[in-house]
Amino acid sequence: DIDLVKEIAKAQGFKVKFVNTAWGVIFESLKNGDRDFIISGITITPKRLESVDFSHPYFAAHQLILTQKNVKVKSLADLKGKKVSVVANSAGDIACSNAFGKASTSIKRFDNTPLALEELNAGGVDAAVGDVGVFAYYAHQNPGKAFNMVRDPHFEDQYFGIGVRKGNTKVLNELNEGLKKVIASGAYAKIYHKWFGEKAVVPKLPIK
Question: Which pTM value belongs to this model?
Fold first, then answer.
């Protein structure tokens, strides 16, 4: 996300200051005008579109189940009765809440992805559910743990977007134009390969 924004800023000729902000307050910080835009693997959803405007999608994603090596599952339903970590109010949390009930004691919610994954790494949960980009990268960085990666066939394709305050067309247009330039120049493909070691999968623009 940071690499992409740097390239967008370079393409559009503006300066950017990165402010590390807790997931739980990023939307509020945007609404209050404390941030000009937010980017943090944010899935574009109909609900979020009610209060946030999103750039064209910059990443095609889906939810991924990461389990301990001794836990074999084929779908989210197979995790019933097991402990699962998620980021609070994330797409992973929504998926688990729909499957097991929002008040289920099996779901352990955390403020951010590193904490949710650390709980899995420490053996505090049987599995974690979250965005494929971060989870797949984490699994590859921890080969000794031999985590299992599973995509539930019911998980829909999702798309990440850069969020701006509702009605802020100036910033939105700036980001969209920059994103187009970064994709066209090949800079996007280089960033994608840097992080995932694969050929870039570029979402068709726009998706709303």
Answer: 0.72
